[in-house]
Amino acid sequence: MSKSVEEEESASARYPTATTVRDFHANVAAVRARIAAAAERAGRDAASVRLLPVSKTVPTDRVRVAIEAGLRVLGENKVQEAVRKHRETGDLDVSWAIIGHLQTNKARDVAAFAHEFQALDRLRVAEALDRRLQAAGRSLDVFVQVNTSAEDSKFGMPPEELSAFLKVMPVYSSLRVRGLMTLAILTPDEARVRGCFRVLRELRDRARADAPDLIGDGELSMGMSGDYEIAVEEGATCVRVGQAIFGARALPDSYYWPEG
């Protein structure tokens, strides 16, 4: 059996596919229970952790069932996929968060409908979004993405550039910085994963001490299906969970990682 097949079968067993409202209720309840347990281990209130379901690669018919089950804010990595699903669910009560890398030529799409944007890592993108939002008379909550794993393949700015970036952000008045976001390294080594999350928390704490007005609520968006419990233990206020809610994807994580 090839490694990819083994990974796929393992993911399918770990992440049961949700196709009915009852399935979604069960999967979400299981995730929330794990969040609560992780929060308790860290001496935190589980209510301080926001669960953002991520519908990446999930067909719209199943997304509609998820919305029926009560998921009212969904995350998408790719703007084109988010635009399509936004259009195909326009009759339903749902908001969309863009959590993946954004090219400046897609800023108009994000400015038109997104509830929040969690992958801001360049001033060119901030400028493009602000210009489009100003024209639309809208504002947008944003998270600044930081590359805490130091991997060349990852999007996000180097940690040492964050302070200067935050100081410039007030120029873009339609963008409301709410906090920071990161992707941990993909590895079974828990210590290395935990280290990525600690770096983001320390950056947030330093920003709060130096210029609290620039970091908004100081949220920390970190943790996905494979590592959100560690993220909660390290201070996450938002976890982006896809497979553990919707079910295993058709291809293993190694195919999708990194998102870029």
TrEMBL record:
Keywords: Pyridoxal phosphate. The keyword Glycoprotein does not apply. CDD domains: PLPDE_III_YBL036c_like (cd00635). The keyword Mitochondrion does not apply. InterPro entries: Ala_racemase_N (IPR001608), PLP-binding_barrel (IPR029066), PyrdxlP_homeostasis (IPR011078). It comes from the Bacteria. The modification N6-(pyridoxal phosphate)lysine is found at K56. Pfam families: Ala_racemase_N. Residues 27-249 form the Alanine racemase N-terminal domain. Pyridoxal 5'-phosphate (PLP)-binding protein, which is involved in PLP homeostasis. NCBIfam families: YggS family pyridoxal phosphate-dependent enzyme. Belongs to the pyridoxal phosphate-binding protein YggS/PROSC family. PANTHER family: PROLINE SYNTHETASE CO-TRANSCRIBED BACTERIAL HOMOLOG PROTEIN (PTHR10146), PYRIDOXAL PHOSPHATE HOMEOSTASIS PROTEIN (PTHR10146:SF14). This is Pyridoxal phosphate homeostasis protein. It comes from Microbacterium paraoxydans.
